[in-house]
Design brief:
By secondary structure, the chain is α/β, with parallel strands linked by helices. It folds into three domains: 61 residues, Nucleic acid-binding proteins (OB fold (Dihydrolipoamide Acetyltransferase, E2P), Beta Barrel); 251 residues, Vaccinia Virus protein VP39 (Rossmann fold, 3-Layer(aba) Sandwich), CATH 3.40.50; 135 residues, Beta Barrel (OB fold (Dihydrolipoamide Acetyltransferase, E2P)). Helix content is 24%, strand content 33%. It contains ten helices and 22 strands. The strands form four sheets. Strands 6-21-22-20-19-16-17-18 form an eight-stranded mixed sheet, with helices on both faces. It has a seven-stranded mixed sheet with strand order 9-8-7-10-11-12-13. Helix 3 runs antiparallel to helix 4. The radius of gyration is 24 Å and the shape is globular. Bound molecules: S-adenosyl-L-homocysteine (SAH). S-adenosyl-L-homocysteine binds next to helix 6, strand 17 and helix 8.
Length: 490
């Protein structure tokens, strides 16, 4: 085996990075042998050391940037390399967008089997962020103890559970740091311990912080391996000095588990929930030469319509983490749905009904389906809160509820919207969608590989892709959302 390999572990090489892999790693070649280099930026010439060598390729560690790429930028976070949260902070934002657009495009061509010329025709340019930092409305910080015995909090290093001490993540809101400092000094002054997952001892496991971007409301939930916080009033007194503080709670999680939140939440101060509002924009696209983008010449403006939906969020609720881009994504989904007010719409994988409630004002009837019962409870509450009466929700798997309702009650849809988790839609669900023959299908996806697979299935079953657009919800990471419109063949 060994002699087949061109290079061995610990070899040091110089390589020019020519491509970006799916996980944001740099890819380069030396004498036809492929090297994957985490933290190397496309266009860099780097010195690397081989960590793991295979026959045709190797994983190598970045030792030194010899000639930096014109696309290389200084990360805003000092821990960008170690932290598992961001993968591409050293790549300019403009290039991050090009990378994501290309990723979606390549997956549709390679995995979906669509013609390149066809994809170029239907794909619109990625919707980027205006402010690619401090966009997250939610953060969950793990707590631990350093070698000197001090309580620390921060982020997990990539693929591990060791904590990098950092209270100022640049993707999160500024208030996070204030909250974390309050918790750390409360722990120090009152001798409250951090949880140690190895021995399942210690009290403070995580702190969840959420902010309503529109409402300005802040929520703090301390997850503990215990039933109460000692001298909780000391912590509360400090936390309520922070502007916007609305809800302080504890979540009891005494299980030996990776799951962050416990099932039980007790409010210690303020309200049980915070609210936030998502606006609908009118999507105005105009043709314009856009030389940067490989995907056409469309420029888009999002203009406020005055329409909005308000959500009530508890510590356990699922809620989109980038509200600014979510508004754009859902406005696009609504635009793609082409509703006139008379349609029956199904929203599969509806979560707390975010998309359903966006659609409801423009349809005759909306039906949402979601597997998590508490999310459906939230969806129903949110419908009431917004005086929406034409949205009905089902608890269950989309691949079970949809066929059941179709076979038993002959349900009908003009439009079906799906927003599945990364693994995409179950084939049974797609099969039922084909039988229901809605005029249009809007597919919102957080994984373009499974999107490509599912689009192939739907297109073989009598649908055609009309429009595709990537939306960047997660700047500095390799994740990308995509919205796609399919229409039934005549
Ligand atoms: N559209 C929602 C949530 C999308 S995330 C929003 O924007 O808020 C995907 C959702 O699918 C999650 O809420 C998850 O709980 C749900 N889910 C996962 N598998 C499912 C299945 N088989 N059937 C129905 N819902 C499912």
């Amino acid at each position: 085996m060994q002699e087949n390999r061109k290079f061995q572990k610990d070899d040091t090489l110089e390589v020019t990075i020519e491509d970006i892999g799916h996980d944001g790693e740099g890819i380069g070649k030396v004498e036809g042998y492929t090297l994957f280099v985490k933290d190397a930026v496309i266009g860099d010439t780097v010195q690397v050391k081989i960590m793991r060598a295979k026959k045709a390729y190797a994983y190598a560690r970045l030792e030194k940037v010899v000639t930096p790429s014109p696309f290389r930028v200084q990360p805003q976070c000092a821990y960008a390399r170690q932290c598992g949260g961001c993968q591409i902070q050293a790549l300019s934002y403009e290039q991050q967008l090009r990378f994501k657009e290309k990723k979606v495009r390549n997956n549709l061509i390679r995995l979906g089997g669509f013609e390149e010329a066809f994809i170029n025709q239907v794909m619109e340019p990625i919707v980027g962020m205006e402010e690619p930092y401090r966009y997250r409305n939610k953060a969950q910080f793990p707590f631990g103890t350093d070698r000197e015995g001090n309580c620390i909090t921060g982020f997990y290093a990539g693929r591990t559970h060791s904590i990098i001490s950092n209270t100022n993540c640049v993707l999160g809101v500024e208030e996070n740091e204030e909250v974390l400092n309050c918790v750390l000094s409360y722990m120090k002054e009152n001798h409250v311990s951090a949880y140690d997952e190895k021995i399942h001892k210690g009290l403070i496991r995580h702190v969840l912080i959420r902010k309503g971007f529109q409402s300005g409301q802040l929520m703090v939930c301390v997850v503990i391996n215990g039933k109460s916080l000692p001298k909780q009033e000391k912590l509360i007194d400090d936390l309520i000095k922070i502007k916007g503080m609305t809800s302080i709670s504890i979540s009891i999680n005494m299980e030996q588990t990776n799951v962050i939140m416990g099932k039980e939440v007790r409010t210690l101060w303020g309200s049980e929930t915070i609210t936030d509002t998502l606006q609908r924009y009118e999507v105005v696209s105009r043709k314009e030469k856009d030389t940067e983008s490989a995907c056409g010449e469309v420029k888009t403006e999002f203009t406020a319509t005055g329409e909005s939906v308000t959500f009530c969020i508890s510590p356990l609720s699922f809620y989109q983490v980038n509200p600014v881009q979510t508004e754009k994504l859902y406005s696009l989904a609504l635009d793609y749905a082409g509703l006139t007010g008379t349609e029956t719409v199904w929203d599969l994988y509806c979560g707390i009904g975010t998309i359903s409630l966006f659609l409801a004002g423009h349809a005759a009837q909306v039906y949402g389906v979601e597997i998590i019962p508490q999310a459906i409870e939230d969806a129903r509450k949110n419908a009431k809160l917004n005086h929406i009466e034409n949205a009905q929700f089902f608890v269950g798997k989309a691949e079970e509820v949809l066929p059941r309702e179709y076979e038993k009650n002959g349900i009908y849809a003009d439009v079906i919207v799906v927003d599945p988790p990364r693994k995409g839609c179950d084939e049974k669900c797609l099969g039922t969608m084909l039988k229901m023959r809605p005029e249009r299908i809007v597919y919102v996806s957080c994984d373009s590989a499974t999107l490509a697979r599912d689009l192939k299935f739907l297109c073989e079953g009598g649908y055609e892709i009309k429009r595709v657009r990537a939306v960047d919800q997660f700047a500095q990471t390799v994740h990308v959302e995509t919205v796609c419109l399919l229409s039934r063949n005549k």
